[in-house]
Amino acid sequence: MCLILVAWQVHPHYPLVLAANRDEFYRRPAAPAQWWPGTEGILAGRDLEAGGTWLGVTRQGAFAALTNFRDPASHRADAPSRGQLVPQILDRTSSPAARLARLQAEGPRYNGFNLLWAEAGQLHVYESVPARTRLLGPGIYGLSNHLLDTPWPKVEQAKSRLAAALGALPEEQGLLALLRDDAPASDEQLPRTGVSLVWERLLSSAFICAPEYGTRCSSLLTISGAGAVRFREQTWDAQGRLAGEVQHPFKLA
After folding, report:
1. pLDDT digits (tens, 9 = 90+) for 128-138
2. Cα separation values, 227 from 99, 146, 223, 235, Å
3. DSSP code for 184
4. Pick from 156, 153, 54, 57: nearest CA to 113
5. Residue 12, H or E segment
């Protein structure tokens, strides 16, 4: 993912509300969200090049979502795919403590990343660049290609729009609209992350549609206090047009 918004234990009826965009090169093949075979129950899209994913949820309501940390100067071409990290942290064949220890031990092998995940009523973030794990309390959080809640314009604007959209739930139009916002930030608001000014402009909007690269899918995940889970994913083509949609409602196991 390149933009993840989470309302954690804020809404009285929806303890989890997540809205996220995945940005990637159009040439990189991917499959829409579905239940993965051969697992204990992970619902996720799949990167068909490296086999991992960017966002997944289990039948028990655990979820994980990943963003890359943008730092071109530190990029290593031989590093393993970060998409492995989501299924690894959701793998219930080992204990949560063992999975966290593995993440902390193996994090330096990967290019920079941030991993948000929730399990057993706790929300965590692991930020690989400072190599730290934090337990997060109730609140609204935004994550792009820097550290959690770094005040990039699209993160701040999307957090505000998420807060405003919560009151309309279960109506999802406000959540979908914030993910489809393609307005760029002004030049004076742009971060400096090591890419060209042209790319800083292109990457500054919540929804990206650039030559060869852009927002490939938008995902909504809500879990109600009654245990009803709704996962909705929209996919986009290279012209920014809706190319498909899947919905996977289910009850917590």
Report:
1. 999 999 999 99
2. 25, 32, 6, 26
3. P
4. 54
5. none
Backbone dihedral angles phi then psi of residue 121, each to the nearest 5 degrees: 75, 15
> Residue 170: is the preceding peptide bond cis (ω within 30°)?
yes
Classify domain 3-251 at the CATH class level: alpha beta
Instruction: Report the SS3 class of residue 168.
Output: helix
What's the average model confidence in pLDDT over 144-173? 97
Please report which residue ranges of the chain form alpha helices under DSSP H.
Answer: 85-89, 96-106, 153-165, 173-179, 197-202
67 close to 144: Cβ distance less than 8 angstroms: yes
Tracing tokens 């971060």 back to the chain, one arrives at 191
Q: Residue 1 has what pLDDT?
A: 80
Q: What is the pLDDT of residues 34-52, one digit of tens each?
A: 999 876 689 999 999 999 9
Closest CA to 108 of 87, 83, 134, 127: 127
Confidence of residue 83 (pLDDT cuts 50, 70, 90): very high
207 and 21 in contact (C-beta within 8 Å)? yes
pTM for the complete prediction?
Answer: 0.96
How many helices and strands, by DSSP H and E, does the chain display? 5, 14
- Dist. CA 200–CA 150, nearest whole Å: 15
